[in-house]
């Protein structure tokens, strides 16, 4: 018979576990946060392997002039000519009717029968470099002849599925790089202000308050409007990430500064000073690790706002431009009444955008709750 006095209670488990064990335990218990993390993992996979997942490059050399602004092609097993075991799509053509003021879509016929294109998985087509390094021509799916458009095509006849995959990479990486730049600035500025204090802290806080009172949207518009029109898309891309990073550091910097001001006189900090540790070591090895979970939460919560900023600026024409593919660039085409009435599939990138922002929100809420693991202890 087990000794009841050796059995740990739930309270004891909490108090004897490490900080990260408590963090992970509470995070796993939040199913919505775990769902948000799983969805974001899928988006990260799309961003990393976009060339493999997308059947085409999404650029002008892969346009389908016979299927302009065409609706999504359904994956079928049956049509008017019967059924088969292997999935296929019908070869379609589209044209704009000036009289009816709408797009007419028809199935291409051969010998009086609709043309079928069998779907091929791990299809070999256009060459690319996986992860920018590994040469390959393998795609997740495709067709031997003709083209397949699971999300339809845009007004230029470009495959929307492929463009959404590449846009996911662009928007996520802009958000990540913007957060990374703002994190580095926040860590340095907030760390110096909180640990040094005195007139240094006062000077930094005055500058921080100056940045905070500037309205963000006009500031975004002013900075992005300064981009020369002859810049390449790569230059605009990196300038956009720099703008997002330089504007959004004050909030996290103030939180880091407040934490360091409250913790710099703790006994373990004084002991580190007496042991001869310099300021950099005290901040990085003793003070910030105890605040790391809150920093992670802050970064995750702010990530969707950076995506929102890029998307909003691109929609109004102040951000990225064609042929660069981002969610904001793709959503430019849905801002007309014609798109709402005639081409509702142009809203598919909006679904990806909303799901990504919602997933970040759920994940951020779960991480925020997990960052205070002792709140769930029953007293």
Look at the structure and name the CATH superfamily of the largest domain. MetI-like
Oligomer: single chain
Shape: elongated
First-residue to last-residue Cα separation: 29 Å
Name of the CATH class of the largest domain: Mainly Alpha
How many strands, what sense, and barrel or not for the largest sheet? 4 strands, antiparallel
CATH topology of the largest domain: MetI-like fold
Spatial ordering of strands, largest sheet: 1-2-7-8
Helix content: 40-55%
CATH architecture type of the largest domain: Orthogonal Bundle
- Total number of distinct structural domains: 2
Tell me the structural class: alpha+beta
Q: Give Rg in angstroms.
A: 27 Å
| Strand content bin | 5-15%
Could you name the ranges where pLDDT drops below 50 across 5 or more consecutive residues? Answer: 4-9, 375-379
In N-to-C order, the SSE pattern is HHHHEEEEEEEEHHHHHHHHHHH
Beta strands, count: 8
Question: Nutshell version of this structure?
Answer:
The chain is of the alpha+beta class and 379 residues long. 55% of the residues lie in helices and 14% in strands.
What does this structure look like?
The protein has 379 residues and is α+β, with helices and mostly antiparallel strands. It is built from 15 helices and 8 strands. The protein has 2 domains: 55-158, no CATH class; 163-376, Orthogonal Bundle (MetI-like fold). The protein is 55% helix and 14% strand. It is elongated, with a radius of gyration of 27 Å.
Secondary-structure topology with pairs:
Elements lengths: L9 H7 L2 H11 L1 H18 L1 H4 L22 E4 L2 E9 L1 E6 L4 E6 L1 E2 L2 E2 L1 E15 L3 E10 L16 H37 L1 H16 L2 H10 L7 H15 L2 H14 L3 H8 L4 H9 L4 H24 L11 H5 L5 H6 L5 H23 L9
């Amino acid at each position: 018979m087990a000794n009841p006095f050796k059995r740990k209670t739930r309270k004891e488990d909490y108090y004897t576990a490490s900080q990260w064990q408590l963090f992970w335990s509470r995070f796993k218990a939040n199913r919505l946060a775990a769902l948000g993390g799983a969805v974001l993992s899928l988006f990260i996979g799309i961003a990393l392997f976009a060339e493999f997942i997308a059947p085409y490059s999404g650029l002008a050399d892969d346009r389908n002039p016979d299927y302009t602004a065409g609706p999504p092609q359904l994956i079928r097993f049956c049509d008017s000519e019967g059924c088969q075991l292997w999935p296929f799509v019908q070869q379609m053509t589209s044209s704009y009717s000036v009289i009816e003021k709408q797009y007419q879509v028809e199935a291409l016929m051969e010998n009086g029968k609709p043309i079928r294109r069998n779907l091929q998985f791990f299809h070999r087509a256009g060459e690319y470099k996986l992860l920018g390094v590994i040469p390959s021509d393998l795609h997740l799916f495709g067709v031997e002849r003709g083209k397949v458009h699971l999300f339809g095509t845009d007004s230029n006849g470009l495959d929307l599925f492929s463009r959404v995959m590449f846009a996911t990479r662009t928007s996520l990486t802009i958000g990540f790089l913007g957060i990374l730049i703002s994190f580095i600035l926040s860590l340095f500025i907030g760390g110096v202000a909180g640990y040094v204090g005195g007139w240094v802290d006062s000077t930094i806080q005055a500058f921080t308050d100056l940045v905070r009172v500037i309205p963000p949207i006009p500031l975004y518009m002013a900075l992005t409007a300064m981009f020369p029109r002859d810049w390449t898309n790569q230059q605009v891309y990196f300038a956009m990430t720099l703008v997002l990073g330089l504007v959004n550091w004050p909030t996290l910097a103030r939180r880091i500064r407040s934490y360091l001001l409250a913790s710099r006189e703790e006994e373990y900090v004084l002991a580190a000073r007496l042991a001869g540790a310099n300021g950099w070591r005290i901040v990085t090895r003793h003070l910030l690790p105890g605040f790391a979970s809150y920093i992670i939460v802050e970064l995750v919560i702010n990530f969707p706002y950076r995506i929102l900023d890029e998307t909003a600026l691109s929609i109004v024409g102040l951000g990225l431009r064609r042929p660069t593919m981002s969610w904001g660039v793709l959503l430019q085409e849905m801002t007309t009444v014609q798109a709402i009435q005639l081409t509702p599939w142009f809203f598919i990138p909006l679904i990806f955008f909303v799901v990504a922002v919602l997933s970040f929100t759920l994940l951020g809420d779960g991480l925020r709750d997990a960052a205070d693991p002792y709140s769930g202890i029953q007293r």
